[in-house]
């Protein structure tokens, strides 16, 4: 399989196409599906062989089929890893080209010429020779930064691909020692355990124990992504089986009918998520967690959070589930895209953390039980991001919308969050009365509430309970909950009010779900906090 040529020097960087590298990686990823199908065919062939053939020759043939099947299975994470390497290389080329563009723009505005080899000199037709040295030096420095970034990315990608090539000759996998971290192990301990394994042992765990590898906070994003992608087919089969069981129930009562609609929606959502995972769109998506039980959970990163300088974790609110995972991921993507517009040279990653059971109905959202239940998992996930990050620590921001802001606030209050900033939009309260109770650095708690957000009408839950008890109908109960403006929300003081002690950014009149609208200044606000600007 051919690949684009290497990136060397100014001329190459100015003409290189990062999308071509991304497409090459995606082609490699598609080989994973081919290998999985062929391995399945060998399994079927082995089963058929055992039913109609016996003896020593049959045993030898069966052993050979088993060996071939294991070799094909071991190729799957290697193909995915190749895609990861090339996608990350493409992303860094985008950042390098952004720096190159900035350098060229600087040259054009300061009267500096750049030749095909990247040499710089003053333009005698535009600027007198006296006093041009600082401008020439500034442009030369900017060019060097862009070329150094590209060269570093090229060198790292080459080394990673060389290691994969070596593994092909030495053996893809090797069984690791018997110890496995418990499901809720401290991420730092998990990271030390993982670091103590050889690459072949890690690939063995991805292939043979993907459920463990894919869910452990403290395992690097690349390995979790490989493991969870291996589980996708089985996860979808589970949903299909549930759908078929509900479909077979005739007659179906209201609960069964609602369940059938829910499974159909979850299947549609999963298929949309798979389409995003398999697309050549940048940034590449990393599947860090997936559960199809109940209404489903998903943790998906856009861009590798272990290699980004700024990482946003987005926690959605009421009604969030697998059925709309792609929609929620789109919100994270819009913050990431606005960040790229503001700082195109910066490597960022945005994570959709739908790792909890979000409320479906208003009466569920009026209580904090589901937020409290989610706190430890969010705490552990953020610790895992810190533990697995390569190089200097990234700036980590956690964004909560609606009930998701309560999840974030409760996790920070009860467990602490490995975060440099918290952002709350459309919040019903975050479980504390003042920003100081969230354990964040001074000035790093942010909030915004749209002027027409219905959340402004909510009142505290003790008052809600009294009004609900006095209501004669569901309509009356809901009307009792929405009782007019004030600083107190269902779960404490409005974090966007001055008395909360945080910082705010503006939002236009886009309602409760419009904070991500392209024209809403709130989108800029979220992106700037993510970037620390």
What would you note in describing this structure?
The protein has 533 residues and is an alpha/beta fold. It is built from 16 helices and twelve strands. The strands form three sheets. The chain has an eight-stranded mixed sheet, with helices on both faces. It has a two-stranded antiparallel sheet with strand order 1-2. A hairpin with a 2-residue loop joins β10 (488-489) and β11. The two termini are 43 Å apart.
Order of helices and strands: HHHEEHHHHHHEEEHEHHEHEEHHEEEH
Q: Could you say which structural class the secondary elements and strand pairing correspond to?
A: alpha/beta
Percent helix among the residues?
55-70%
Mean pLDDT: 88
Question: pLDDT below 50 for ≥5 consecutive residues: which ranges?
Answer: 469-485
Question: What does the largest sheet look like?
Answer: 8 strands, mixed
- Strand content range: 5-15%
Topology:
Layout: H1 9-15, H2 18-52, H3 56-110, E1 112-114, E2 120-122, H4 133-170, H5 187-195, H6 199-208, H7 210-215, H8 221-247, H9 254-278, E3 285-291, E4 297-302, E5 310-315, H10 325-342, E6 348-354, H11 362-365, H12 369-388, E7 395-401, H13 403-414, E8 421-425, E9 445-448, H14 461-470, H15 474-481, E10 488-489, E11 492-493, E12 503-504, H16 521-531
Parallel strand pairs: 5-6, 5-7, 7-8, 8-9, 9-12
Antiparallel strand pairs: 1-2, 3-4, 4-6, 10-11
Helix pairs in contact: 2-3, 3-4, 3-6, 3-8, 6-8, 8-9, 10-16, 12-13, 14-15
